[in-house]
Each structure stands twice: as structure tokens, then as C-alpha cells.
Amino acid sequence: MTTLKIHDIESAPEGSKNLLEQSLKTNGMIPGLHGVLAGAPELLEAYQTLHKLFTQSSFDKEELTVVWQTINVEHECHYCVPAHTAIAGMMKVDAGITDALRNKVAMPTEKLQALHTFTLKIVRNRGHVNQEDLNSFYTAGYQERQVLEIILGLSQKVISNYTNHIANTPVDAPFQKFAWESAKV
To answer: Which homologous superfamily is 59-178 in?
Structure first.
């Protein structure tokens, strides 16, 4: 088991102090992930910027949740699955969507299932998809823009998921009630 330092505003490198102050202001706390990312100010800034940009994409709150949680579950992120369960709740996303993603069962609509399936193909195949995969995604109502926006969301999640794996970031108290473990088959 590995661990990395979880910084607070006092211990953070100078370039991260303002970013952590913003995180505290936005979240009412400094999430442990942000504290770890603060060890490299550029990484914390990149993560926060990618998060902001992804939330401004063309995806609605349910679709954002599907992309985030599909990746979190696939990457088996012990920290991000519970965190995004709480975030989905704050965004008023139907709990059935979050439960389906956490439990690896079908999405409640064909369109969300197509988004989930295509996101998994991108993650599992490291971006190698074929025209048939794209056509299925487009037939569900998505466009090229959303293909690229999934890559944006994936970029954000690679930063958080991989950091949490290496740091073994403890799940923050507000998210602990949503603790999650990957079902081993």
C-alpha cells in the first residue's frame, strides 16, 4: 500500500495555496484528492480546470454522471466512486442511474446505455474504437462533439483515479456513507 502526502493550505507548495483556498471556498472543505494533487501545483490546476471544462460541456447532469462513474468504476477508484455518488446526489441525478453504474447493471435508458457502452470502449481500448462503435453512438443521438467530450472527462478521471490509486487517498467523511468496492468475479 502506498501513500502520498495530503496537503492543507499551510503545508502546500506556494503554487497550490490559492487553488486549495478556492477548493475550500467551493466545497466547504479541502477534499483529500485536492490535498494530494496540491503536491504538484500544475496537476491540481489541471484537474480543477478539466473539471470546470467538463461540467461546461454539452452533457447534462445525468450524462456527466454516466461518464464520470463509468470511468471511476472501470478504474476501480475507491475514492472517486463514493465522491461522485455524493456529487450526483447534490446534482439531483436519479439514484437509479448511480446505483446502476456502481453495480454494473444496465442503464435506465437506451441513450444513457449507449453513452456508458461507448465510454467503456474508449477506456478499455485506450481510444481505439471502430466506425461501427461510432455509428452506434451516433444512432443513440450523440455527435462527434460528445466523442471528444468523453475524452475530456477521461482526462480528468485519469488524473484523479490514478492519483488515488497511488496515494491510497482516504475517502472524505462526507462520502464515507457511499463507500464502494469493486465486485470481484
So the answer is: AhpD-like (1.20.1290.10)
Write down the pLDDT at residue 73: 98
Whole-model pTM over 0.70: yes
Average pLDDT value over all residues in the chain: 96
Contact between 13 and 44 under an 8 Å Cβ cutoff? The reply is no
Q: What are the CB-based long-range contacts (under 8 Å, 24+) for 171-175?
A: 171/32, 171/78, 171/79, 171/82, 171/83, 172/29, 172/31, 172/32, 172/83, 174/29, 174/86, 175/79, 175/82, 175/83, 175/85, 175/86
- pLDDT, residue 184, reads 65
Q: What is the pLDDT of residues 114-125, one digit of tens each?
A: 999 999 999 999
* Cα(80)–Cα(86) distance, integer angstroms: 10
Q: Which three cell numbers stand for residue 122?
A: 474508449
